[in-house]
Specification:
Helix content: 25-40%
Radius of gyration: 31 Å
CATH architecture of the largest domain: Orthogonal Bundle
Number of helices: 14
Strand content: under 5%
Number of strands: 2
Shape: globular
Number of domains: 3
């Protein structure tokens, strides 16, 4: 009931045939009661809302905050992923406890490029994941602190928003877990443990301020992982010439040789047995025979699961941006796509644990050429916005 409608209410309550002084007096009395009723109702409503918000009656909110409330995080802007053509929005993996926000993504970008997040200030996440190499590093194996070499090549870090298990061997169940793993690898960022890294970060007042704004807490390893993972989820690759031809119907988007290569990709070359779906990966693990011919076997997935069937098995990488991400395979042994196709054409390297999907293909030289031409059409867009910060928190 609105106070501006008091007169209408009074008129409906006083019989219309009563008029003169009695009507006027009654009308004034009813108006006073209505105003009193309106004020009482308003007070009750405010009191109820106060209880719902957790403010006890008679205790000012300012006093309650002074009694020990945690400071609230700054209101943040929701971030809507812009999914390039050819990718599937329904396949996006974003944990419920780590929604994307503009502020969290920007914090993640700073962390991703900051070399201070290594023990000797020489290595950042971006040291091994560079845009010009499709977010790999262009090396057969990665180089960490003090020039130490890892045992595997850097996996591409775009389109991770469509993936759950991370790393070549899938040892990280989430992108958040993957984002903090390298910090305590002795040949990557080199910290003894995450606590050592957090102690170092807490000496940077600018980061403490940003974490308070984004998470409402001091710096934590959980927050570091969530921020970097959020940033990585914005690095995408789609809308390639291959997409525009295959899904968009643009007949001239790729060459006739590449068109034939697409047919081979799906049929004779059997590529889709593993490189399937819109992201060209089945997200599974396979033993191709890498290392079995020169006694350099990496046990791969087996070291995570202990399953003998997964000895020497590694995760199928996406083929998007594949022309930019040489060298190839988990140990970077092949410098060109032609070498990769020749390897598969021979049926990989036979071993007791080789995946039965890997068989000789008997492709002709022209067919191998056309297949490579198709693979070169998978360079796309959705990652070009990523730039290194010009300044970092101090």
């Amino acid at each position: 009931m609105r106070l501006s409608s008091d007169e209408m209410l009074i008129d409906s309550l006083i019989e219309p045939e009563h008029n003169g002084m009695a009507y006027t007096a009654g009308r004034e009395e009813m108006a006073m009661k209505a105003r009193d009723l309106g004020i009482s109702t308003l007070v009750c409503v405010l009191a109820v809302f106060g209880l719902l918000l957790g403010v006890p009656s008679g205790e000012p909110r300012a006093e309650q905050a002074a009694a020990g409330d945690k400071p609230a995080r700054t209101a943040q802007g929701e971030y809507k992923l812009k999914i390039p053509f050819g990718l599937e929005e329904t396949a996006v993996v974003i944990p419920a406890d780590n929604p994307l926000t503009k502020e969290k993504i920007e914090l993640g970008r700073l962390l991703f490029f900051d070399k201070r997040l290594s023990r000797n200030n020489t290595v950042a996440c971006a040291s091994c994941h560079m845009a010009k190499f499709a977010f790999t590093d262009g090396k057969n194996v990665s180089t960490g602190i003090n020039g130490l070499k890892g045992g595997r090549s850097a996996p591409a870090s775009f389109n991770r928003v469509f993936s759950k298990a991370q790393f070549w061997d899938g040892r990280a169940a989430t992108l958040e877990e993957q984002s903090v793993g390298p910090f305590i690898n002795p040949v990557e960022h080199g910290f003894k443990n995450h606590d050592e890294m957090i102690v170092k970060m807490k000496k940077i007042a600018g980061y403490r301020k940003l974490f308070k704004e984004v998470f409402g807490t001091d710096i934590t390893i959980d927050g570091v992982g969530k921020a970097i993972a959020s940033f990585q989820r914005t690095i995408l690759s789609g809308n390639s010439p291959g997409d525009r031809f295959d899904q968009g119907g643009e007949e001239k988007a790729i060459s006739p040789a590449a068109q034939n290569g697409l047919v081979l990709f799906r049929e004779k070359a059997r590529c889709t047995k593993c490189h399937s779906g819109f992201n060209f990966t089945d997200e599974k693990f396979h033993n191709l025979g890498i290392g079995w011919d020169d006694n350099k076997v990496d046990l791969g997935r087996y070291m995570v699961t202990g399953n003998p069937d997964e000895i020497g098995a590694f995760k199928t990488p996406t083929l998007r941006e594949i022309a930019r991400s040489a060298p190839y395979m988990h140990d970077g042994r092949f410098k060109t796509l032609e070498e990769v196709v020749n390897f598969y054409n021979k049926g990989g390297v036979k071993n007791p644990h080789q995946d039965n999907l890997i068989i000789p293909l008997e492709l002709t030289d022209q067919e191998k050429h056309d297949l490579v031409e198709f693979l070169r059409t998978l360079n796309g867009e959705g990652w070009q916005h990523v730039k290194a910060p010009t300044t970092f928190p101090k």
